[in-house]
Amino acid sequence: MAPVRRRRKKIVDPGQPLIVVGDGAAIPTKKDVGLFNAWRIAFFGSLAVVVCLIVFKPDPYLRIFAFVPDGIWVTFKVTVGSILLAVVIGLFTGLGRLSPIRSSVGSPPCMWR
Fold this sequence. Notes:
Elements (H helix, E strand, L loop, with lengths): L17 E3 L14 E3 H19 L1 H41 L15
Parallel strand pairs: 1-2
């Protein structure tokens, strides 16, 4: 059987930028000034693409980008409304479960045990 050779690690100059491509989160320390991971590259790359599309092809993309804040506001309102509705339904279900009256919200078809 052949002997196992250990690979020597390349020593990277600390001043040289380092691009790390991996699945985990790369939390930089103070000495990792030039640390870029794949998420940062994808984020800034997509921002650059969006800006270039708005500047160089404003006909559809500027109108689309102008519509985004309205969509964010509608999404926020729907989210808050659904959370409030879920809290109200949960409160009524909990009160019905505690109630001694069997015809209340907490009757056996609505109860989960």
